[in-house]
Amino acid sequence: MKQKLISLALTAALGAFAGLATGEEKHHAGGSQPSAAASASLTNGEVRKVDKDAKKITIKHGPIANLDMPAMTMVFQVKDPTLLDQVKAGEKVKFVADKVGGAYVVVRFEK
Ligand SMILES: [Cu+2]
């Protein structure tokens, strides 16, 4: 019984190692793009409110795959305040969102 457990643990460890090796290979194949941006997907949304003073934006968004979030209207922070100069209320946008330090942040917009 003990022998079997050790064997299982060893198999799991080897599996994890193989997974790491594969991930490393993918990373290299992806070129020089940061891995976070490469894995994040574009989300459709409609800008509801832009608050430059608070550096926040309200977006009615579709499902966000990389954050496992359903469609809703919510407030995002922005990675860079200048992002708020690219959009205005009522505009349809595509954007990349990420979770940074427990907050939902818009990383970039794409028109
Ligand atoms: Cu949301």
Note down, in words, how this protein is organized:
This protein has helices at 2-29, 35-39, and strands at residues 42-51, 56-61, 72-78, 92-100, 103-110. The model is unreliable at 20-38 (pLDDT under 50). The chain is α+β, with helices and mostly antiparallel strands. It folds into two domains: 2-32; 37-110, Copper binding periplasmic protein CusF (OB fold (Dihydrolipoamide Acetyltransferase, E2P), Beta Barrel). Helices cover 30% and strands 36% of the residues. Bound molecules: copper (II) ion (CU). Copper (II) ion is lined by residues 61, 69, 72, 74.
Put the structure in a nutshell.
The chain has helices at residues 2-29, 35-39, and strands at residues 42-51, 56-61, 72-78, 92-100, 103-110.
Annotated CATH homologous superfamily of the largest domain: Copper binding periplasmic protein CusF
Distance between the termini: 60 Å
Largest sheet: 5 strands, mixed, barrel
C-alpha Rg, in Å?
20 Å
- Classify the fold: give the CATH topology of the largest domain: OB fold (Dihydrolipoamide Acetyltransferase, E2P)
> Which of globular, elongated, flat, extended, rod-shaped describes the shape?
elongated
Task: Please give the number of β-strands.
Answer: 5
Structural class by SSE content: alpha+beta
Oligomeric state, counting identical vs distinct chains: single chain
Order of helices and strands: HHEEEEE
CATH architecture of the largest domain: Beta Barrel
Average residue pLDDT = 80
For the record, what CATH class of the largest domain applies?
Answer: Mainly Beta
Query: Which runs of at least 5 residues are low in confidence (pLDDT < 50)?
Result: 20-38
Task: List the domain count as a whole number.
Answer: 2
* Helical amount: 25-40%
**How many separate helices?**
2
Bound molecules: copper (II) ion
